[in-house]
Amino acid sequence: MKPIVKHTIIVALTALLLGGCASNQQLTSAQAPHYQPETSADSSGKTEKLWQIFERYQGTPYHYGGTTARGFDCSGFITTAYREGLGQHLPRSTSQMLRHGKVVQTENIKPGDVVFFRIAGKDQHAGIYMGDNRFIHASTSSGVIASELNGYYWQGRLSQARRFD
Q1: Residue ranges of the NlpC/P60 domain (predicted)?
Q2: 84: domain CATH number?
Q3: Is the pTM of this model over 0.85?
Q4: Residue 125 and residue 141 in contact, taking contact as beta carbons nearer than 8 Å
Q5: Catalytic residues
């Protein structure tokens, strides 16, 4: 295979993989850090801790394979948020997360559940649901942000959710 063709294929595959964590719809920075945690007894502490992690890392750039404040990918941010905020260890990749946790019907999603999005026919992006139609995640375009499930880009892409208790 010619080097230019090989390079083109590699670039195209990389763009497709990274596109899974893309977002062009986000909440303003004025909205995101000031959310009030949900008040139900079973989720208020969890939600508050996850918002604190979000505030710590908000704006951290996207980095494929990243799991630190220098850069996160979507699953790297989720595993870090769960580990630092809740003391839980989750599987590292989106595909591994899809094989674990309790399946939750999308109409029964609670704050702290991991939500998955279908992009280009494949579940390849994930975030943490925070209540009131919001989720936090690491996007390729904006880094760690808060978005709305019914936002322009995300509307109709939510495919499933998992609960990791």
Answers
A1: 44-165
A2: 3.90.1720.10
A3: no
A4: no
A5: 74, 125, 137
